[in-house]
Amino acid sequence: MAISDELNGKVSLVTGGSGDIGGAIAKRLGQSGSTVVITYVGAEEAAEKTVKEIVEEGGQASALQLDQREPKDIESTIKKIADDFGRLDILVNNAAWNIGIPFPNLEDLTPEIWDRVLETNLRAPFLLARSSASLLKADGGGHIVNISSAGGISPGSSSIAYSSSKAGLNHLTRCLAVAMSPEVAVNCVAPGLVENTRMANRLPEAISSGARRQAILGRVGQTDDIAEQVLTFVTSTSVTGQTMVIDGGLPGAMR
Predict the structure, then answer these.
(1) Sheet holding 60-65: strands in order across?
(2) How far is the C-alpha of 225 from the C-alpha of 143, rounded, in Å?
């Protein structure tokens, strides 16, 4: 795909760009002319593969290691972006962690697992937004897109902790939209099951099969659709505080 100029001169940060959804988002932003920085925790090879694919298409990209459970690492990452590029226009909070624990198995959901999920999926997006606020506000047209989950709307996902973290992220989106207006628009994409991703592979089979069965379009969420919605949000000028569900049409998330 030829590089367009929709986001020419913009700098984007996509957390978890080594993953399937994050990689698709990073590549779509790169195709639209943005310089893209992606983060990874341990999957350096996958991150470099995404960078290589963006560069081979004529875009600009780089990768940084980030453990977003560490507030100091978040601050140093944003500082490096400021030092390297002097700006940040788009923040995509995509990185997340889940583990398959069926809802009835309350004893299996330990405090340690709860904290890891909430720190990664909810606290980190807030800290990233806070650390990057001045950069995002600088040109008066910054964007944050949080990647949530349909499990944050209806009670069904890999675990109670995951659903709770994503429900919190949905509302954090609205709160940040108020807090960072008028300079920064904050929106959210909430995928349901997305086939053949690492996240999907951690889901209990009952959840996965139920999503496939209930999707009224006959297919569940697609990474390309998620990436395209992110692009729509970051090129809009009058949309903020919204959550768009992409799940093939699961009735439970139609609210």
Answers:
(1) 60-65, 35-40, 11-14, 90-93, 142-147, 184-191, 243-246
(2) 19
pLDDT tens-digit series, residues 9-23: 999 999 999 988 999
Q: Is 40 a catalytic residue?
A: no
Task: Indicate whether this model's pTM tops 0.70.
Answer: yes
- Among 40, 97, 162, 233, the active-site one is 162
Task: Return the structure tokens found at 87.
Answer: 């700006």
Residue 133 tokens read as 């606020």
Among 173, 209, 216, residue whose Cα is nearest residue 193: 209
Contacts of 199 by beta carbon, 8 Å cutoff, 6+ apart: 19, 20, 21, 96, 98, 158
DSSP label of 251: G
CA angle (232 as vertex; 230, 234 as ends), nearest 5: 70
CA 140 from centroid of its chain's CA atoms: 22
What is the token pair recorded at 2?
Answer: 């030829």
Neighbours of 53 (CB within 10 A): 15
CA 82 remoteness from chain centre: 21
